Amino acid sequence: MGYCLYGNDLDDTTTPLEAGLGWVTKFTKDFTAKEILQQQKTEGVPRRLVGFELADKGIPRHGYEIVDAEGNNIGIVTSGTQSPTLGKAIGLGYVKKRMPQSDLIFSSKCAINNWLQQ
Question: How far is CA 25 from CA 16, 20, 45, 84, 91, in A?
Fold first, then answer.
């Protein structure tokens, strides 16, 4: 589902567009930081919230680094848990916008098997 938890997946440093919540942002009205959000909408966001499942046993924890296969830091885990429905560990995290979804990504603690569709 990808429900965002304020304080983990959303906070005062995150924009709705980075979190994939642009659909709830009404640009027809005036609001705080409207210019910044319009710029992000036009130019793109520097990072995006993605869902993932783990390849190995473990739970992705808030603050774990997300790194690529070469060990380059490309993001951070914001929340994670064991899904009783899927029987797998799943999580949310922010990655650099330019990171392709098809790449196999690793966190500092466990392998991320699959990007979930956003």
Answer: 7, 10, 15, 32, 24
pLDDT given for residue 69 in this prediction: 67
Cα distance between residue 101 and residue 52, in whole Å: 10
**Tens-digit pLDDT profile for residues 55-96:** 677 888 898 887 766 777 788 899 988 989 988 888 889 988
- Asked whether the beta carbons of 49 and 118 are under 8 A apart, the reply is yes
Please tell me the total number of residues recorded for the chain in this structure: 118
Residues 6+ apart with CB under 8 A from 19: 4, 9, 10, 49
Those residues with Cβ within 8 angstroms of residue 29's Cβ, 6 or more apart along the chain or in another chain: none
The whole model's pTM is what?
0.79
- What is the spatial distance between Cα 15 and Cα 111, in angstroms, rounded to a whole number? 27
